[in-house]
């Protein structure tokens, strides 16, 4: 009986420490996202937008493993990284809201919530894609080297949610905030969607994937949090 109580107590303590760590990681990620965005404000807001902090979206993949992968049969190993992946996703989303709210050229509620919604959905989809990403799972199971991960198409799917969601949502409402009403047209909206998507793609495909591969060798340290 005492043994069971001690085990239950240890489990509760472990869960408590894990919850605190997850919240802390989300807070740090949110702060970093907001700071990087505000420091690069001249290129982080507007139609031609290269928001460098969006590269952090790919870090979500650091905290995600496929629980069906033979390498991660332990429930503790499988659950911890996935919770961390969600923490990073949540941090990026909150960071986006903070950055848009503190934007020196404040664009109002539509940007606070529209941009945050786009980032949040993109973060969730990135998390889901990372769960069963072939390239990442092959690397984690030591079947391929880090340099070989670039050879797999699945690796290039990870940034897609950021490009598509931001282009389809932020790219649509930004013209209404920057373009005079008498100049608005379907062409203006569509061209803005394309331009915004290209800008986002440059950030997440170049900086984002590079950032991910930079941290991948240190990935196991994230799991121990």
UniProtKB/TrEMBL annotation:
<feature type="transmembrane region" description="Helical">
    <location>
        <begin position="84"/>
        <end position="103"/>
    </location>
</feature>
<feature type="transmembrane region" description="Helical">
    <location>
        <begin position="55"/>
        <end position="72"/>
    </location>
</feature>
<feature type="transmembrane region" description="Helical">
    <location>
        <begin position="186"/>
        <end position="216"/>
    </location>
</feature>
<dbReference type="Pfam" id="PF06177">
    <property type="entry name" value="QueT"/>
</dbReference>
<protein>
    <recommendedName>
        <fullName>QueT transporter</fullName>
    </recommendedName>
</protein>
<keyword id="KW-0812">Transmembrane</keyword>
<feature type="transmembrane region" description="Helical">
    <location>
        <begin position="20"/>
        <end position="43"/>
    </location>
</feature>
<dbReference type="InterPro" id="IPR010387">
    <property type="entry name" value="QueT"/>
</dbReference>
<feature type="transmembrane region" description="Helical">
    <location>
        <begin position="109"/>
        <end position="131"/>
    </location>
</feature>
<feature type="transmembrane region" description="Helical">
    <location>
        <begin position="152"/>
        <end position="174"/>
    </location>
</feature>
<keyword id="KW-0472">Membrane</keyword>
<keyword id="KW-1133">Transmembrane helix</keyword>
């Amino acid at each position: 009986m005492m043994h069971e109580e001690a085990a239950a107590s240890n489990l509760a303590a472990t869960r408590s420490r894990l919850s605190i760590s997850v919240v802390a990681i989300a807070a740090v990620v949110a702060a970093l996202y907001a700071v990087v965005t505000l420091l690069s404000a001249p290129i982080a807001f507007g139609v031609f937008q290269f928001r460098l902090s969006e590269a952090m979206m790919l870090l979500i993949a650091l905290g995600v493993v496929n629980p069906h992968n033979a390498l991660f049969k332990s429930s503790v190993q499988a659950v911890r990284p996935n919770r961390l992946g969600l923490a990073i996703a949540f941090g990026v989303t909150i960071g986006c809201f903070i950055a848009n709210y503190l934007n020196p050229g404040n664009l109002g509620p539509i940007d606070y919530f529209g941009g945050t919604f786009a980032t949040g959905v993109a973060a969730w989809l990135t998390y889901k894609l990372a769960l069963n990403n072939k390239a990442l799972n092959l690397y984690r199971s030591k079947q391929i080297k880090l340099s070989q991960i670039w050879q797999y198409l699945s690796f290039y799917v990870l940034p897609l949610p950021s490009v598509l969601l931001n282009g389809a949502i932020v790219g649509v409402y930004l013209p209404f905030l920057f373009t005079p009403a008498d100049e608005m047209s379907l062409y203006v909206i569509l061209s803005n969607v394309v331009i915004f998507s290209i800008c986002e793609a440059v950030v997440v495909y170049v900086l984002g994937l590079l950032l991910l591969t930079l941290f991948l060798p240190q990935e196991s340290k994230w799991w121990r949090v």
